[in-house]
Structures are given as structure tokens and as C-alpha cells.
Amino acid sequence: MKLSVVIVNYNVKYYLGQCLESLRRALKGIDAEVIVVDNHSHDDSVAYLRSRFPEVHFIASAHNLGFACGNNIAIRQSKGEYVLLLNPDTVVGEDAIRASVAFMDSHPGAGAHGVQMLNDCGERAPESRRGLPSPMVSFYKMAGLCKHFPQSDRFAHYYMGSLSWDVPGRIEVVSGAYCFLRKSALDRVGLLDEDFFMYGEDVDLSYRLLKGGFENWYLPVRILHYKGESTQKSSFRYVHVFYDAMLIFFRKHYGGMNVLWRLPIKAAIYAKALGTLVGTTVRAVRKKMGFRIPKGTSYPHYIFVGGEDVVKSCERLATENALSAEYRVAGRDALETVHNELLGRFGGRDRQFCIVYDTDLYSYQDILDAFAACPLRNVHIGFYHRKENRVITMAEIIGG
């Protein structure tokens, strides 16, 4: 078998369903298996998805074992020459998997590679290419030098900002959201470190691959990553887990360094965690006290684009859910023209807009490419799934 796709799920059944639907298309013609480990979700993920995706092997854990452990359970059962670790809150373009397999076949020294991840506006996520968080690299990031000099080889090494986005390039850290691995490399360096419950395990594995003599690469192949839809980033637990992962990585790989370096770095991590907790608390208090976004900017205006029958279904769905919406009937070949026209109308306004495309008519690849060609921060990606009569965006799930 050529490929094993491994997904760890926790309470995001609709996003996972969309991810699996995109995988169906992307895996056509590839000898592959898909393994989903459900980390004791409370939203009936397995029961909901098992009948819809009979080709997928579901493992329902009786406990939330964490991201690293969940992936390792599936990797040990996998049969593929390659293993793809994939987040459930992703959408994979139809060309992505074939390009990944072809690259690994032609680069035997590659242990892993990542891809160009887009956010829901079509912007390229900087974590698509990352450097190792050494003490100096981490200092530049925390001091803001990475942000102020985004293309500097030295100050922006955390996101490897000097690399081109348009050609394959050597990187140091591959994101766990889409981590395409050579199984024989895992056999040599070991699986994910289960001391990391969530976050940091991809950095640790990438570092061990480099130490093991393998190369890590970036490919200019696009996927959508909602970036954290499967986690509650506003929770105190998230803050604890995220910054604890930073400390685990630091102790594991830099614990032997001089105490004059260790103490400032630890202090910086604790200070950053404290600042995040304070910000989280302030936002929670404001929400409880009733502070809201000004009227008219809270909810997006939807533009539904698809075939005539689909647009009629979307109109009913929008009416039933009291959405601010409009509709465009367009054929398969008109996506780029319609998209550019809509960007011209809505770009730069204060209000948020969401262009929702019919996934039966348009390919995921074409939708992602259209948004990536001209990303606007007030125009977001939406998908309409006809079979489920459901709209999925980063902000909300409607219908179904």
C-alpha cells in the first residue's frame, strides 16, 4: 500500500466530514487507507460519520489520549509506505496528495514534507514553513523582530521568511496539520513523543528527523486549514497545554545549556503564558458583561454561487436561518470570473462577507486557488454540501 492517512478527531464531526469528502477526491487512483482515531468525542462523531464513509477505518477511544498518542495508535496499524498526519479541520485540494506522493518518490532523502496552508480568507499561513525554535530564534520571535522583518533570513527564521512560497524548499519544522512522512523514517527515529499531549509534537518529530539524517521540505501545494477549529483556544486548558509543550521541548532538546540562557528563556515562556491568560480572562469577562461587536458587523453577508438547483436550495436554507444573503447562478468554467467580480464588489469594506461555493459543481482545488489568488481579510471561504444541505465556514455551520 502506498499511503496511510491518519486523522485524530475530537468533537468536530462536521469539519471532519468535509475533510473526508475532500480526501475521497484527492485519493482517487492512489492505493491508500484512511484511519480516524476519535479521542472520546461527545458529539457522536463516529456514529455520524461511519455510515457516511464506510471506506474509513474508525477507532473509537474510550479516553481522550491526546494528539500524539492518538496518531501513534493509528500509525502502528498503518500499512502504507507513507503516512500522512492530517488535521480534521482541513480541506485537501484534489491535486495535493498526488503531488505529495510524487515528491516523496523522487526525493528518497526526504523524511517529511508540509504544504502551503491557507486560512479561510485565502492567506498563506506562516507556519507552513518553520524553523527550529532555538533559543535565539525564539527570542527574535518573542521580541517581535520576526514580525517586523518578515523576510529576514536571521530575524524571521522562525517562519523561514526568506524562502520562496512558489517553489519547493528545505525547511526544519513540518506542521502536524499536514505532515507527510516516510514510514521507514519513522521506523528509524521513532513515533510522536507522547509526553506532548497536544502541540509541540510536530516540532519534536521534525527535529528528530533532521538529527536522523533526513530532510524536511515545503511544497507549494495548497490546502485549507481552519487553524484550531478542533481546539478551544479561548480556554485556560489550551493556554496550559500549549505553553507546557514549549517547556517540554525546551527541556528535552536544550536542557543541557548554560543556566544563564535557561532562566531567561523559561521566564519568557512563563511571561508569555501569563499574558495570554490575562487576555483570555479579559475577553471572557467582557463577553459575560454583554460587550458585543457593533450591530451590522457581527454576522457575515453570504453570497451563494452554484448551479440553478443548488442556488434555489441555498435560498431556502438562508431564509430558514435568517441569513443576509444573495445568490449567483454560474457554471463550472465561470468560477474565476464570478469570484473576481465579487472580490471587486466586497473587498475593502468594513463588513465581513462569505462566498459559499457548491462543492458538487466546483473542485476544492479551484475554490482554494481562487481565494489564494487575491486574499482579502473581509472575504471568507464557504462550502455548500448539497447532499447534507449544509454550509460550512470557519465561523459557523448552517443547516443539515
UniProtKB/TrEMBL annotation:
Domain of life: Bacteria
GO MF term list: transferase activity
Coiled coil: none
InterPro entries per UniProt: Glyco_trans_2-like (IPR001173), Nucleotide-diphossugar_trans (IPR029044)
Record key words, sorted: Transferase
TM region(s), chain numbering: none
Pfam families named among the record's database cross-references: Glycos_transf_2
Domain Glycosyltransferase 2-like: 4-131
PANTHER family: RHAMNOSYLTRANSFERASE WBBL (PTHR43179)
Protein name: Glycosyl transferase family 2
Organism from which the protein derives: Prevotella fusca JCM 17724
